[in-house]
Structure prediction request, 472 residues.
Amino acid sequence: MATQVETQAQPTAPRKFGMRDCLAYAAGDLGCNMSFALKGTMSIFWTQFMGMDLWYALLLIVVQVWDAINDPLIGSIIDADRHTYKRNKFLSYIWLGSIGLIVGGACCFLPFPNASVWAKAIIFIAGYVVWDAFYTVANVPYGSLLSLISNDVKDRASLSAWRSIGSIFGNMLPMLILPFIIYDKDNNLIGERVFIAALIMGVLGFICFQFMIRNTTIRVDTSVALNEEQPKFNVFKAFGNFIKNRPAVGATLAAMGMFIGMQGSTTAVTVIFQSYFKNVQISGIVQLFAMIPIVLFTPLARKMVAKYGKKELATFGSICSVIASLGLFIITPNNTGLDLIVYILCQLVYSLGLGIYSTVSWAMMGDAIDYNEWKTGTREEGTVYSLHSFFRKLAQGIGPSLILIIMVALGYVGENEGNQLWHVAVNMRYLVAATFLFSALMQFVGLALVYNLDKKTLAKMNEELGRESATE
Prediction:
């Protein structure tokens, strides 16, 4: 009997890492992007349908104050949470966030174009705060999970690559389908349809999160003993550790650059297809075509990381993006057919660079969390990732606000919808090129000059932490 009891008391070994983990992790980012993908439509909705223009730019800056409180606060709450959960505390928080995101995204698109300016401002701020709170509750622990599913660097590279696939499909579906649903034949936005689309995408996101939660296995034990000697969590100290964490700062700077390019240029890109190429419905097809390099590179990411290293690959990708951004300044406004070809080709090269970086970006943040443990003795997954998420969101908010202000200065008028003056459309073409170039340069600086975990240093860190390294 004693022998039988001892056998039953032995802990069950975790399931071996495999494709199930990759698909589950990809589903998580697919769920996030079912909600996040509509953020690119937000500026068009609030300037062209709700008629806010500069008001929207100012309000978007205001809600970043909430982001400043929201992300680090939730990250610190997760790190300080010592409760025992049936499955895992990160998965429990993701479950809670996924519930709120069912309606959170739709709150940002309540269609009341005839309301007063102040009523619209309240609607926007309230809707954004609700959406952002639930998005953070789901997204911060989701990002932290990568470093807990496996401590093998090759596994993390696979998870990061599959997260990129989830992100691609999460952006691809709305990008391809929405232009045919939410715009009329005159390239003008139908606001009521955006609200309905947001509700549907919230439900789809919830389903993706549930699949991820049920198929995720935690293999890295980061439990801590709850005793009197354990130091009290200090968010200011954690922030200080983040600033000293060069990999986290470098990866964050690169991510900020990426999102300034992706989110900051969204409105200007839409205006280009509305008033320059005169066909907003093909915008999704063109952007979908630009994702081909990302899809082609993703299956190669694991082997490429093992051979060259994450920092090295990502830096090469940023150089590709810089070259492509310079090419976007070549325009032929008297021949929009030829100009569309030039635009597509440059987008392909830019997307290749972005794809190389994005497939390893989350694995780089997982390494940054390990670096924090290596240098300070504490992991602080939630805080490191939430501060990374905060600065990324800052770029997502400040970037579009500043670009919109520049757009107005260059002649953009939201009430004209898809009928901007020709010289304004040409200005938007140059503005997109400048935004992409600035974005690519930020990525290069963050990855090549600040991020310091090259292949050799990463191997040393993993060896001292007692973890496997990508030596194959």
Observations:
- Residues 59 and 122 are 10 Å apart (CA to CA).
